[in-house]
């Protein structure tokens, strides 16, 4: 397993197993309270993992060029599912739909659909990307449509993740940087308006700026997260010995799972988890550079960047350097949809790595920055 493809597969396996371990550790008090069974939330996570592994294998073994033929249909289907989350009889909460006995989050599936669509569209547009009308505006329209639904859910964190990933793909795909900067300049005031439209967003931002003043309200999660991270020390309290998960830290098993990792395994364990995620992203970037064509390169750039950027956002929230966003830690946090999609993105990387196994190292694909 010395190939890049094999190394990525090994890291994915370690992340999956680590995720199951820490989800059980962080969730068993809540599982006991909800069902009387300490394994109940872990069982759901395992189901998400099994479905995700099926998706991983499909994306790994099927020729990735197939996805460029149906990417617009996939994106449209995800958008319809997102809209359905706003229909009370169909939705399971504000962000979920129910599929049989299990809820799932369409915005998570949107990560894969968006990468496939943007990458495929960039390849199809070719030199037209040099025009602002063809190189930026169509993607602004797509983001605008998705953004309206995500803000109504509300899910600002996912919208930020979508927008930054699309911007990165546009840049690496050859869109002139000045066009992206112009768009950013127009987007800043829009972001400010969005921030002030919802009181809870404004309060979260205020709590970020002055955590002590909000430590019992909007800053409570961050305050408890910092206590958990700090109490882990160098080696941690030991697996299963977290105190924060005993209902002191809300969302300890999903958005703030890293805080439990830090508390139970300390600095050493935290760095190991971060290293695994960093290896995956770094090797994903290598896959992009070795891809046999432009489409594969953009798929790999998109999947690697999204996983890396989401990881940074989650870690930044856990240690209090960003306001709370509600984003999971890829592969590790509880959430069947999140785990499923993380594995699918890993499968996309493996598929491109498999196709580029015999490509010349260091040769850049025309039309792709790297």
Short synopsis of the structure:
Belongs to the SEDS family. FtsW subfamily. Its main location: membrane. The chain has 370 residues and is mostly helical.
Features:
mainly alpha; two-stranded antiparallel sheet; 67% helix; globular; cell wall biogenesis/degradation; cell membrane; membrane; peptidoglycan synthesis
Spans of at least 5 consecutive residues whose pLDDT stays below 50 are 360-364
Instruction: Give the spatial strand order of the biggest sheet.
Output: 1-2
Arithmetic mean of pLDDT: 91
Q: Estimate what percentage of residues fall within beta strands.
A: under 5%
Percentage of helical residues?
A: 55-70%
Describe the structure.
Keywords: Cell cycle, Cell division, Cell membrane, Cell shape, Cell wall biogenesis/degradation, Glycosyltransferase, Membrane, Peptidoglycan synthesis, Transferase, Transmembrane, Transmembrane helix. One of its GO terms (cellular component) is plasma membrane. The chain is mainly α and 370 residues long. It has one domain. The protein is built from 13 helices and two strands; from the N terminus they run αααββαααααααααα. It has a two-stranded antiparallel ribbon with strand order 1-2. β1 and β2 form a beta hairpin. The chain is globular, with a radius of gyration of 20 Å.
Helix-strand blueprint:
Elements lengths: L3 H32 L4 H22 L9 H14 L12 E3 L2 E3 L1 H20 L6 H4 L1 H16 L3 H17 L4 H21 L1 H11 L10 H12 L25 H34 L3 H25 L17 H20 L15
Antiparallel strand pairs: 1-2
